[in-house]
C-alpha cells in the first residue's frame, strides 16, 4: 500500500532508484558498486515501511522492520568475514530474518487459503524438497544449516499467504531468490546467465511486496483481525 504522505513516498522512490542502479550494476558486472548499493536497499525499505505505517505502529509492521534489519545484516556482514565463513554469516542473519517474519505472519494463518485447502501447500513442499535434493550432494558440512534455513524460508513463504496477496507473492519470490543462490553455490551443473541480476531482482521485489502486504494488512479495518 503506497501512502499519500510525502516522506514515505520519498523513501520508496529512493528504494526503487537504488534498486534499479543495483540491478544495472549486477547486469554489467561493476562489482565496485555492488556492495554500496546493496547496503542501502533494506534501510530505505525499512524507512518507507516505518514512515508509511499509521501510529501507533502495529505488531506486524514492527516485526517486519526487525526482519528487514536482519536482512540488511545478511546483505552486508558477510563482507566482514573470511571467505570460509561469509556464507554461514549470511545464512545465519537471513535465518533470523525468516524467523522474525514467521513470528510476524503466524497470527494471520487462520485467514490463509492454505489452511482450508491443504493441497495448495504441495507446490511449496515440492520446491523446498527439490532444492534440498539438488543442493544436498554439494553442500557437504553446510547441509544442516542449509536444510534448517530452507525449512524456515518455506514456512515464511507459506505463512505470508495469510497476510496479504502481495506478501504471498513476496514470500514466493524470496523462495525463488534464495533457491537460485543455493543452486549457484551447491549445484555444480547449474549455470544461469546473469544469475546475480536475477537473484537481486527477485530479492528486492520480494522484500518490497512483503512490506506492501504488511502495510496493507496493518491499514485494514479493525474487524479484519487474525483469525
Overview of the structural elements:
This protein has 227 residues and is mostly helical. 74% of the residues lie in helices and 0% in strands. It contains 9 helices and no strands. Helix 8 packs antiparallel against helix 9. The two termini are 22 Å apart. The mean pLDDT is 91.
> What amount of the residues lies in strands?
under 5%
Runs with pLDDT <50, length 5+? none
- Mean pLDDT comes to 91
What gyration radius follows from the Cα positions, in whole Å?
A: 17 Å
Number of strands: 0
| Shape assignment | globular
Q: Please count the helical segments.
A: 9
| Overall helicity | over 70%
**SSE succession:** HHHHHHHHH
Helix-strand makeup class = mainly alpha
Distance from N terminus to C terminus (CA atoms, Å) equals 22 Å
Largest sheet: none
